[in-house]
Amino acid sequence: MPFEKLNSPSLKQLFVRQLQGMILSGELPMGTQLPPERELARQMQVSRAVVNGGLTELAQQGFLEVRPRQGTCVADYRRKGNLSTLIAIMEYRDGVLGKDEIRSLLEVRQALEHLAVNSAIRYASDQALDSLGEHLARMAQAEDIAQAAEAAFQFQHELALVGGNSIVPLIYYSFKAPVITLWMRFCRLYGIEALLRNTERLYDCIRARDEQAAAEWIDRYLGQAIRGSQQIYSER
Questions:
Q1: Partners of 71 in the β-ladder
Q2: Structural domains counted in the chain
Q3: Could you tell me which of 92, 115, 104, 118 has the C-alpha nearest to residue 17?
């Protein structure tokens, strides 16, 4: 069995992780003014280049705000954040999302799925819809929950592609990491078969080009995950 090469994190990565942890733990509350770059470099015993690069990355993630002539302060990442912020939060929590974040992700997915399914039913060719069945077959043959979750994601991503909207597939792919995490949790709670049945039912509606039935099923099965009998906010 081949083993992968181990790589140690760079000083910039260590700098970013330390500040992320201090912000997310509340040790550095929102609005806190950071020391100048030179002082941060001295205290953390790294170069100013490391500090500058790290602060730039944290600002891009929505954790910091650089104010001209005022310096750098901790931002309200709930208002300033983006997908990179969500991924950083997941990594800080070892892949764990809070209940509000999970509910929000599911609600976004519900809205996107309506758009993707309607577009596929209206505009995709029969051949394109047939290609979706290949991902269902992979899901049915999955040997573990990781394979099942990956197949489910590929089904959804392909569904977004065949509808012809050029932006929806990009949004889907941007959320790949947290979405797969949630599907794996779903499989641990309810089994791969439950995920497969939900996806098969959706596929049947799409193949029949029945927009109403597809919309009703999306609301039903995702509604069960949001507030019904198949919630995934925590693992029992």
A1: 67
A2: 2
A3: 92
